[in-house]
Amino acid sequence: MATHSPQSGVVASRVNEIVGRLRERGHRLTPQRYAVVRALVEGGEHPSAEQLFHRVSDAVPATARTSECLAVLAECSLTGSTARL
Predict the structure, then answer these.
(1) What is the pTM of this model?
(2) Which residues are within 8 A (CB) of 1 and not within 5 positions of it... i.e. 6 or more apart?
(3) Among 33, 37, 44, 72, which is most buried by a count of CB atoms within 10 Å?
(4) How far apart are CA 46 and CA 75, in angstroms?
(5) Over the stretch 42-70, which tens digit does the pLDDT of each residue have?
């Protein structure tokens, strides 16, 4: 039987909150955006764009796509809030 830590519930809740805020602002949830949001929330610190790219390079194969995802999050004022987890 799989057990989930309280931390995994917090991560899932925070990811869902950010996804909801993106959708409220009219943005689609692409696999690339989801990967970036999840990596930001799970990381718990404020990574550079390059560090983030390395974390999500399997799901987001180009640096430009990672930058686009970060731009959308910044536009929605979400990057600062995810960095403070």
Answers:
(1) 0.68
(2) none
(3) 37
(4) 17
(5) 877 777 778 888 888 877 766 667 777 77
